[in-house]
């Protein structure tokens, strides 16, 4: 696998990002997940240092002042940030990295960061289904649930700015779709790195007259 690529997954709360990422990462080699910092509460079943680093707002602002975040945002009323040192360390080790980041953070990574990045937007089949999944997950209080559903209305509008749209109807199908996106991009990036794309262009420009 060619290393050094950031695969940035985004989409409304409840769309199925974590579910699809976790299952896909079990099936590919040379990939690691970027564990973010967050100030939101840990959900039942979430593991410190695997799902997130759960920290206080004071600790978050301290890390921000120290320049520890590659990017950060306030999302659905909580703070989230990507560890700069983690990203650098894993890229140096030749890994590709999957990140789960909000819409604005994803677009910032694409536009501002000096890395190869691929942006993938995960959507549920309908708003109704999103409501059903979020309520079914049962991890948000009434206020947070309402805010996340409200936020999904503008998040969905930004999907066109992403490289890929992944409609998450059936989990196994979505996992295969994410893996096929990764394989396609890996091939494309390794061909460019091997100069093959360049050769192909030269060949087609060859004057046959
Ligand atoms: N900008 C940014 N967003 C993040 C980061 N980590 C998680 N998020 C986003 O924060 C939002 C809320 O994440 P979470 O509380 O886990 O809720 P979920 O979307 O329901 O899984 C999601 O859109 C995540 O993609 C981060 O490091 N930076
Ligand atoms: N394709 C799917 N069909 C039905 N339920 C799903 C599907 N994908 C995820 N879910 C469920 O929907 C809820 C939200 O999934 P999750 O991965 O936490 O989303 P996100 O990380 O985008 O907030 C979870 O309870 C999960 O089990």
Descriptive account of the structure:
It catalyses: GMP + ATP = GDP + ADP. Keywords: ATP-binding, Cytoplasm, Kinase, Nucleotide-binding, Transferase. Residues 4-183 form the Guanylate kinase-like domain. InterPro entries: GK/Ca_channel_bsu (IPR008145), Guanylate_kin-like_dom (IPR008144), Guanylate_kinase (IPR017665), Guanylate_kinase_CS (IPR020590), P-loop_NTPase (IPR027417). Strand 5 and strand 6 (78-83) form a beta hairpin. The chain has 209 residues and is an alpha/beta fold. The protein has a domain at 6-34 and 96-204: P-loop containing nucleotide triphosphate hydrolases (Rossmann fold, 3-Layer(aba) Sandwich). It has a five-stranded parallel beta sheet with strand order 2-7-1-8-9, sandwiched between helices. It has a four-stranded mixed beta sheet with strand order 4-3-6-5. It is globular. The protein is built from eight helices and nine strands. Adenosine-5'-diphosphate binds next to helix 1, helix 5 and helix 7.
Short description:
The chain has 209 residues and is α/β, with parallel strands linked by helices. Helix content is 46%, strand content 22%.
Present the secondary structure layout.
Blueprint: E1 5-10, H1 17-25, E2 31-33, E3 36-38, E4 52-54, H2 57-65, E5 69-75, E6 78-83, H3 84-92, E7 96-100, H4 103-112, E8 116-123, H5 127-137, H6 142-157, E9 164-167, H7 171-193, H8 196-205
Parallel strand pairs: 1-7, 1-8, 2-7, 3-4, 8-9
Antiparallel strand pairs: 3-6, 5-6
Helix pairs in contact: 1-7
The chain binds guanosine-5'-diphosphate (GDP) and adenosine-5'-diphosphate.
